[in-house]
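Exercise: predict the fold of this chain.
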Amino acid sequence: MADYIESLQVLCEQFARLQGVGRKSALRMAFSVLEFTDEEAERFAQAILDAKRKIHPCPVCQNLTDQELCHVCRDETRDRSVICVVEDVRVLMAIEKVREYRGMYHVLHGAISPVSGITPDKIRIAELLERLKDDSVREVIIATDPDIEGEATAMYIAKLLKPLGIRVSRLAYGVPVGGDLEYADEVTLSRALDGRREF
């Protein structure tokens, strides 16, 4: 049906651009939007524009924020001697739900994947190395996904950090290899943090 109504087809195509959204889901979302009042549709569109315009990487840890610094970097009670390196913000949010980790973060915004053309210079490794220059960090916890790309990224970072004399540890995983950390439950993440191992 969307094929015969041009504006509906365009709307479906835009929803289908979202990660993990297939054609059927995009069509359901488009029909949901059609049920909005004009005011609801305007608020929905404005929320997208506001998020796109206001949200930016934190200049310290690369987390997303709409403030000058993210909520973690603004928190003076956090342990600044420990940095947990994650692939993306969704993993940071999953770890924060556990409410046990009180250190800092560094978000890479990706993982090394030569097959996909993602080399170390295309993720935020240089920014991590810059943070380590002031000698205040004692440990870096690498919490990349337990898949091929995540492991390659972890090994690469560990090799860079070893000569700096900083303890480098890797999460102990209770999730299967090939799984995504953002979908792990809080108990599994808590055990993984407690059981992290040194490289």
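Check your answer against the key: The chain has a mean pLDDT of 90.
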